[in-house]
Amino acid sequence: MSTGQTLLLGAIAGSTIFIGLPLGRMRSPRRGFTALLTAIAVGILTFLIVDIFAHAAEPVEGSLDAAVHDNGSVIRAAGLSLLFVVGLAVGLLSLVYYDRWRGRGPRLSEGALSHGPGAAAVTDFGSTGSALGRVLPASRLAMLIAVGIGLHNFAEGLAIGQSAASGQTDLAMLLIIGFALHNATEGFGIVAPMTADAAPRPTWGYLLGLGAIGGAPTFLGTLVGHAWVNDYISVAFLTLAAGSILYVVVELLAVLRRLGSKETVAWGLLIGLTLGFFTDFVLAVSGG
Questions:
Q1: Is the dihedral angle over the CA atoms 239, 243, 248, 250 positive or is it negative?
Q2: Are 246 and 47 in contact (CB under 8 A)?
Q3: Cα 120 to chain center, whole Å?
Q4: What's the pLDDT tens digit per position in 220-276?
Q5: What are the C-alpha distances in Å from 168 to residues 5, 48, 162, 163, 165?
Q6: CA distance 155 to 152
Q7: How many CB atoms sit inside 10 A of residue 38's CB?
Q8: How far apart are CA 12 and CA 18, in angstroms?
């Protein structure tokens, strides 16, 4: 498989994230339906966390096993272990403090009630303050989700590029198909916070921007992986993605506590997890 073909297919795998983005413009006046959509997104993101940790731990565990039983490099094992912890910490805490910084600005008016999944109505804010402080939480949550998924998709691109560069064309094709299925569900996970009836309808330009943040790293990862890759890069990006997505899941769970019944949330989580694992099973059955 040539470099051009590999990059083209990597771009296709990343572009399927746009399939679910138009749902961000859909509106439902029913809180239960919005809760279901948000819970499905949480289920998809929870699957991604499990999947990311599994892949990030593989090289760390392998290096530790080699250091203990096969006279492998202790420095390598220690470096990967430290990188695992540091990447997770940076991915999680950087978004905590970034979101805290973005949240500085106009406060909710006393006694005002916010509507929607993590979204405050424009009228909930006072008339003073910077434009930065007026960024709506629903849009901010969607942006954070896109960033986390983008980091994850960069690592996916590394796998595609590396398999193609090593001559494993069949494996590369299977990875492209599997990751394309993954990304198709991830697009919905990005926009779910913006589907509440009270949330401002996102513009098509904003949705395209979210898709580029979440999907373009697949292409970039394919480019890097086809030229050069190592375990340190993979672990770094996977743990950064895990930390950032974990933060978003915590935020969305807080939203769900205000939105819907436990039964609705449980069904949504089950559907989201099933969608995530189904795409993973497709890869497993195909040998990818």
A1: positive
A2: no
A3: 23
A4: 988 888 887 678 888 888 888 888 888 888 888 887 887 667 888 899 899 989 988
A5: 14, 25, 9, 5, 7
A6: 5
A7: 29
A8: 11
**Gap between the Cα atoms of 272 and 281, Å rounded:** 14
The b-or-e profile of 252-280 (16+ CB within 10 A means b, else e) is beebbeebbeeebbebbbebbbebbeebb
Integer Cα distance of 215 and 154 in angstroms: 9
DSSP string, 13-41: HHHGGGGSGGGGG--BS-HHHHHHHHHHH
Beta bridge partners of 209: none
Chain centroid offset of residue 205 CA: 20
In angstroms and rounded to an integer, the radius of gyration of the C-alpha atoms of the chain is 20
Q: Is the pLDDT of residue 50 over 70?
A: yes
Place of tokens 């950032």: 244
The structure's pTM equals 0.69
State the sign of the Cα–Cα–Cα–Cα dihedral 63, 67, 71, 76.
Answer: positive
Distance (Å, whole) CA 268 – CA 284? 24
